[in-house]
Design goal:
The complex is a heterotrimer.
Chain A (H helix, E strand, L loop, with lengths): L1 H31 L8 H22 L8 H5 L6 H30 L11 H5 L1 H23 L13
Chain B lengths: L2 H18 L4 H17 L1 H16 L6 H13 L3 H13 L5 H14 L5 H18 L4 H11 L2 H4 L4 H10 L3 H29 L11 H27 L4 H18 L8 H32 L1 H12 L3 H18 L2 H18 L4 H15 L7 H9 L4 H24 L2 H10 L3
Helix pairs in contact in B: 1-2, 1-14, 2-3, 2-14, 3-14, 4-7, 4-13, 4-14, 5-6, 5-12, 6-7, 6-8, 6-11, 7-8, 7-19, 8-19, 8-20, 10-17, 10-18, 11-18, 11-20, 11-21, 12-13, 14-17, 15-17, 16-17, 16-18, 17-18, 18-20
Chain C lengths: L15 E5 L7 H16 L5 E5 L7 H10 L4 E5 H5 L4 H4 L9 H8 L2 H4 L7 H4 L1 E16 L14 E4 L3 H9 L3 E4 L5 H6 L5 E4 L1 H6 L2 H4 L2 E17 H6 L2 H35 L3 E4 L2 H15 L3 H11 L4
Parallel strand pairs in C: 1-2, 1-3, 5-6, 5-7, 8-9
Antiparallel strand pairs in C: 3-8, 4-7, 4-8
Helix pairs in contact in C: 1-13
Bound molecules: sodium ion (NA) (2 copies).
The site of one sodium ion has 9 residues of chain B, from loops.
Protein name (chain B): TRAP transporter large permease
Subcellular location (chain B): Cell inner membrane
Keywords (chain B): Cell inner membrane, Cell membrane, Membrane, Transmembrane, Transmembrane helix
Amino acid sequence: MISILNSVLRPVCAGLFAFLLIVMVWQVFARQILNDAPAWTGPAAQYAFIWLVFAGAAWMFAEREHIAIDFFTKLLKIDRTRSLEVFVNLMSFAFAVLLLIWGGVRAVEITWTQAIPGLPFSTGQMFLVVPISGVLIALISLRHAVEAIRTGETAGDNESTEAI
Amino acid sequence: MDIAVVSGLVLVVLIAVLLLARVPIAVTIGLAAFLAIAVVIGLDSATFVAAQRLTAGMNSTTLLAIPLFILAGTIMNNGGIARRLIDAAEVMVGRMPGSLAQTNVVANGLFGSVSGAAVASAAAVGTVMSPRQKEQGYTPAFAAAVNVASAPAGMLIPPSNTLIIYSLVSGTSIAALFTAGYIPGLLWMLTCAVVVWLYTRRDPELKQSLKLSLPVAVATLARALPAIFMVVVVIGGILVGFFTPTESAAIAVVYSLLLSMIYRSVQVRDMPEILLTATKTTVIVLLLVGVSAVLSWAMAISGIPSALADLMLGLTDSPTVILLIIMVALLIIGTFLDPTPAILIFVPILLPIVTEFGVDPVHFGIMVTFNLSLGTITPPVGVTLFVGSKVGDTPIEPLVRRLLPFFAALVVTLLVIVFIPELSLWLPGVLGAE
Amino acid sequence: TGCTYGLQGTPETGKTMIFALDQAEDHPSYIALEAFSDRLEDATDGRWDIRVYPNAALGNQQETVQLVSEGSVDMVVASGTLLENLNRDFRTLALPLLYEDIDHQMAVLSDEEILGDLFTSLEEPNNLTVLGGFTQGERHVYTKNGPFTEPDDLNGQKIRVQESDLMIDMLSAMGSNPTPLSYAEVYTAIQSGVLDGAENNLISYMTTGHNVVAPHVALTAHQVGTDYVVINSEVFTGMTEEDRQTFLQEWQATVDHHTQMWVELTEEAADDAEAQGSTFTEVDQQAFTDGLAEMLEDELADPEVRELFDRIQNYEG
Ligand code: NA
Ligand code: NA
């Protein structure tokens, strides 16, 4: 399941990022060279960006790429235990269900008809990515937890060493 | 019980427990902030607030600069540009004793002035430099220590994603922060150079220097010129007001992409992989920004910052003491937390306290960034340290021992920057970027 | 909900209301609302009070209106432009030449009969009840170079306006070249000559320091601005009859308190501006009125809009 998800999310993320870049470059070009600032580029880039972050979040949970502090769990030698792995994934599950799915659905409801100036979408449609990402992250976390219980496999997180 | 206390307890206890249990930082902050809000306004409403703040926190034009600077850094990391900058650094300081170490310091400064992140620099420069240094008989631990110590200068030298984050939470101007970062960034490099020089005085092994003929030197500098010219376009464009920071980040991507294609270090078919690498970093940073917006709401609704401010202001009325307490606290926080989450969590609490004492918010941003950048080179959690150890192919322990003199010297420089505001504020004043 | 901590409570028994405000603690709105809370607490034996969160700590206006609609925040100050997106009739109340002056404006906004069901029109779809409005004062045009008295003097002058098509139309009808720009950038834009001036009330003119770069104030009084105070409908209708009456009584006192402070601060601002070198010029009102009347023809094409507009314009206490 997770590898299928990855093969969908990777092109989605790369595509959204490329779109974001092209829109921003077009905005600079239109403003500086054509002397005409189009109204749609700002909101379009903004919403592509938010979709990128939430789609990317699902992908990173699938690939176990988050930053976490494993100093203490290593110190206590519980870093690779089954129960810790289940606990960590249940917390991610709770985060996805409470904030992204429950909260996201309510946000979509309240803003569904709120128009975005310059774009043919509503704010609610933009918010849709939040519960969608939430469902994916919830499923992924459950899957990781079940794997840990069944096989005792505790992959832990990849050390994410990219710049922050 | 007062709601600030209840809500504050929920926050502190949950964050501590979940962080220590290696729950991802974004999940930790999000869940803790959500429950602290639920204590005040109820579970159902808290879900809506959390989802709204999560997206509202990311919904800022300024933040769009971050993925673009990250992308530019990733492209530059793929060879070509980084190598030319290192060659230029070698021409500039190659005649000094300990030339390879000094070259590493300057190369990190040059790379930092075109890239938004320090870790990219440590990776790019370290990958090229450590084999050369080993060839010259440097110990891997010393080579890696020089690289790790000097890389964070790039967080102060603009462009800087860390300063963009600070600008967001503090409401200060990016142009002012970027110009304010130059002198402290150069002081960071200078501090490292001095420590390297002290090392070479003790250890004759490190003393050798390079001899470069003038034509070669000129040719090398000329080859690096297009890469260095990027600084002019990106930072100059922001300062003159020709580009917004976000637009200049887009220009940085296009420029570095064009250069890398000319240098044949990046090809079109590499793009998806480059975009995905940049996506990972972007998502890490932006999820933190989003959950920190939830956290800010939690703190605002329960009145935690003003309660803490009253507490601190009750302790002392000396600005020097307050600043020292804050700096020590941030040094401790920085050993565990990276600059982005630390700024997002603590600046909203600390900034109102220091401005009460007349500290300039831009100056505070520079001292906080300098301080927290030190945290990236300290164990137990330090991204620059980890990357430096990986690319330098050396274990953490001997590396940290070699790092200690650098760390001590940088703490002294930090104090100088804290207590001489002009070092940060003079340049923005002269350039009219306030 | 069974939670006993903090700001929760029920409308039946009374509660501490959360009020989201995007102004600072020294703004008349904040001061009036804090006094409102104290009087309300006294008058209801401690059952009701208000906790004001200033400085947009809970989000910007658009976000906090959503929160009131949802119920996580109880009350908020919202601009007319924001409410106009929910019900277009609020646009009529922002038209030029509508109010004679602040007294006229406040009399109208306190009169349920003249406004019909405008203030309750957002209850059904949005769960929002409009309590009334705080005046934002008369708006005037100020420029770097001047003085001017006629619309012709404004020709080609780039005047900053909010991003609202109504304000753009209005400043165009007054002869200028309206330029939307974000608030924070106005000062440097006038200083560097990118803009020739801006339009605002005199209090903001002084707090933003625009008087330093644009010392010529033309007393156009083209609009009398309003900020609306909105409450969650369930909270409002859930109050006991007795508490609601007390609440409304204290609310009216709050509006009067705010208006009085506004008038005093405006006079102070005018004095300060003059002391710091600003000049105030009476303009040819008729010439501006002619231009604006033409623009109003389009706005008032709908007979219902015209009817409300005329009713308010001709209102006499
Ligand atoms: Na940098
Ligand atoms: Na650290």
